[in-house]
Amino acid sequence: MNRNKYKYDKNSPQSILEYALKLSGKSLSEATQLPEGITNSRNRGDLGSLVEKYFFEHVPPNDHEPDFKEAGVELKTTGVILKSSSYQAKERLVLTMINYESLVNENWEESTLKKKCQLMLILFYLYSKDVSVVDRKFVKILLYSIPDSDITQIKRDWEAIKQSVLDGKAHELSEGDTFYLGACRKGSGGEKESLRSQPYSTEPAKSRAFSFKQSYLNKILEGLNENKRDIGLSKTLTIAEATQLRFDPFIGKSVEEISKELNYFKKSLTNKGFLKDISNRILSGGDEVLIELEKAGIELKTIRLNKSGKPRESMSFPGFKYLEIINEEWEDSSFFEKIERKFLLIIFQTDEKGSEKLLKAVYWNMPYEDRLEAKRVWEETKRRVAVDSTRLPGITESKVAHVRPKARNGSDKILTPQGDMQIKKCFWLNSSYIAKVISSL
DNA sequence: GCATGATCATGC
DNA sequence: GCATGATCATGC
Q1: With 0-12 CB in 10 A as exposed, 13-18 as middle and 19+ as buried, what is A45?
Q2: pTM of the model
């Protein structure tokens, strides 16, 4: 009896970790004796509590304390998938629910989030849709505390989320508001989605949780890879501040000057990605993407303005497939996933003499109402594709977004629900909308 | 000048 | 081979 009772020291994070490592390479059902009848669940939410109950034989406190209260360790289980021979996070890691009412009275040091999650035992398991949760193998186990180099940014993210609630805008929160720490949707979606009150507005807000963004989790998984350059100075600066420092020396300079200074030149006259290459090089000094930007899942976009300050082009997003969009939900679409992100806009402008210069680099995320409008265009597209894939929302039909071809050439076509082949298309943000964004910066 | 259609280089 | 970010081309 009490088989596991003395197998680890509840007061010691190290002891808990050592015990947890016995799960390495095994599934819960292999590592412990499970009662009959609980082995069929494919609900990922069940795994954490099952591990706690049957492996650790531990009852977690039912409050805002960490699961292992005495050691201050919070237990997390989360799925990974195998992508080109390395593990990638399947999704964001949910940390703890956001209570809008109490958040506004907290400060970071004594916050619910910090108390609960400053030390986490993260059990990564290999996800497979068809395998029940207790049979999924744990492939990576680690004790994680937020490193000093990330804490400045995470604290800033937490404060940004708190500020939105103070502004009475909890209902407008999106993951693009922040860099590493996100306010992700939590609770049932769709029609019956759970709404909560917020202290400074009568508008009900979707229930949300603090989370590590998927991109941030991927960096944890990589073991904060050594061979990638970081932006430097990040122990005291936020990502936004560090970005500004990188770009400042180049602001106002022409593309030719920048190209010379970086010793990086256009290899082909028709290279459509040259300004993006240049921008990446300003950020990193080389052609690798900065680790901080990857961690934050930032979307870097270049915008070229003509002499009168108007964007020359609309902004494209990944292509969609006619046969897929008709069965997709908005929040599962890649367009949704992209416009929820934080954007780093690198803006170039052609002056009176025809010289194109770097105007500024600025972070931006898409305001709530505009995301709603983009959603409307997406839903309308989905509706039309089911009926007639040839007539999709044009640029005149919305102030925010439209649908247009995005293909290799005129014969780059795919099948539609009507059974014919049509050119590949994608969603675009209207150039007039981009113009409005620029003028509001 | 704009809406719409077409296509390019690149990287994986 | 293909998705992606981006830009070019045409017609009104």
Answers
A1: exposed
A2: 0.81
